[in-house]
């Protein structure tokens, strides 16, 4: 691939353009919002001038509802040798392109499993896709050249290709992406009218659960409108669990010991199933999730504190596998939780104590 056209310069389109440009591909940028295309160009994502000739690959990075028509328009202009979209749903765009008379042989659906609660070109990064799964959904009509161009795009973006049927993909993202967004938003919505005293008690748990609730509502309306059926199916299962959990909690309030035991069993069941599901979430480098030891350090809110901790851990020969920060309410301090392999926990604890770091249980 020597040339590419990126249609749509939001977070995903601009990030792909930045990655391609960094690796020597000549990229042209197109967007209905000319200012947004100019912003992406100013960031080094490519040129906002029209390509002088058909490019090797056109990457369509527009909302799902517009993906099919945009693909059909690009094909009608013979803009590229191959066409690929990065919409978060795959069945709908293919069906729309077919209905509009598009060439399915020159098209492949794709979905990079990466993103951010922020949107727009200013949130873009050439490293956004590194190590992340990038779903490709070819079918029996897909031309081999187009599949190869798509695989080259994934490689240039340093992502990991995953081949998946379009409808199977849509069911999967309903479970692992679209439903979590709605559940996060519903939990965060409870905070809107909550008493200030309650909100001040927010800790890391509520921050973890509600982080993605900060996402752009307009973007998510587009996504959910393109995949409502599978999302509704998952949410109906969540709703059934919620109903059972509510009944179990009511039973815990009963005076009868038998009802309380039944309620406790119901709560235990949902917590156990939740833990079993969490254990299936891939860990570092896509491997099975690892059991880490946590070393907790109290730090002040001053420049360079985190850098010093990491430097001291590195000097002790300890690799930090993961890190979390729990900010103290109303104080210029916080707790940093350093996750390490169990054999390294003792060495890290000793090294940090020796360097004067206050540790916490």
TrEMBL record:
**Pathway as given in its UniProt record:** Amino-acid biosynthesis; L-tyrosine biosynthesis; (4-hydroxyphenyl)pyruvate from prephenate (NAD(+) route): step 1/1
Q: Which reaction does it catalyse?
A: prephenate + NAD(+) = 3-(4-hydroxyphenyl)pyruvate + CO2 + NADH
- The highest taxon in the source lineage is Bacteria
Entry keyword set? Amino-acid biosynthesis, Aromatic amino acid biosynthesis, NAD, Oxidoreductase, Tyrosine biosynthesis
Q: What is its EC number?
A: 1.3.1.12
| Domain Prephenate/arogenate dehydrogenase span(s) in chain numbering | 2-283
Record-annotated ACT domain positions: 294-361
What Pfam families does this protein's entry cite?
A: PDH_C, PDH_N
List the InterPro entries hit by this protein, alphabetically. Answer: 6-PGluconate_DH-like_C_sf (IPR008927), ACT-like_dom_sf (IPR045865), ACT_dom (IPR002912), NAD(P)-bd_dom_sf (IPR036291), PDH_C (IPR046825), PDH_N (IPR046826), Preph/Arog_dehydrog (IPR050812), Prephen_DH (IPR003099)
Q: What SUPFAM superfamilies does this protein's entry cite? A: 6-phosphogluconate dehydrogenase C-terminal domain-like, ACT-like, NAD(P)-binding Rossmann-fold domains
Return the similarity comment. Answer: Belongs to the prephenate/arogenate dehydrogenase family.
Report the protein name in the record: Prephenate dehydrogenase
Give the species.
Answer: Streptomyces synnematoformans
Q: What is the lineage of its organism?
A: Bacteria, Bacillati, Actinomycetota, Actinomycetes, Kitasatosporales
